[in-house]
Design brief:
This protein has helices at about 5-15, 25-30, 55-65, 100-120; strands spanning about 40-50, 70-80, 85-100, 130-140. It is α+β, with helices and mostly antiparallel strands and about 140 residues long. The chain has a single domain (about 5-140), classed as Alpha-Beta Plaits.
């Protein structure tokens, strides 16, 4: 197992991509549009056991507040239990929050600490948190 301080330097260069950078295909498709929009090119996604989602909601609200919120998707999870040498199937909730590079850089440490506390409070042996780049959400103001 690696310490987070050894992992982050490998991830951090990805944060230096200009925050409005998206794929050329998408860029060429939206460039001629007269509609103004904001781009959120980064996301984090937690994997939460479905039966513990209600208990995790307070943590998740706090962890995603600076990003402006989150979305959930119900899914099926499978994980290897080394103690029993078996696969464990369980319904999970994927909790995804989109953000700018600045928000991710500013909040990542707090998200890691908060995820650890959430996992402890939920009685989990681990919490999965994905950091996703070039996972663009377009926000189209309609006012």
């Amino acid at each position: 197992m690696e310490h987070i301080s050894e992992i982050l330097p490998n991830v951090m260069p990805n944060f230096m991509i200009p925050q409005n950078s998206i794929s050329p295909l998408i860029e060429s498709a939206i460039a001629p549009s007269p509609i103004a929009l904001d781009r959120l090119p980064y996301a984090v996604r937690w994997h939460i056991p479905a039966h513990k989602y209600a208990q995790a909601k307070g943590f998740l609200t706090g962890l995603t507040q600076q990003a402006g919120g989150y979305n959930t998707t119900f899914s099926e999870g499978n994980w290897w239990n080394p103690a029993t040498q078996t696969w464990v199937e369980e319904p999970i909730v994927l909790v995804k929050s989109y953000m700018t590079a600045e928000v991710l850089q500013r909040q990542l440490n707090a998200m890691l600490r908060g995820s650890y506390r959430m996992g402890k409070d939920l009685g989990e042996s681990a919490i999965a948190l994905e950091i996703l780049s070039n996972n663009t959400m377009l926000i189209i103001p309609c006012e």
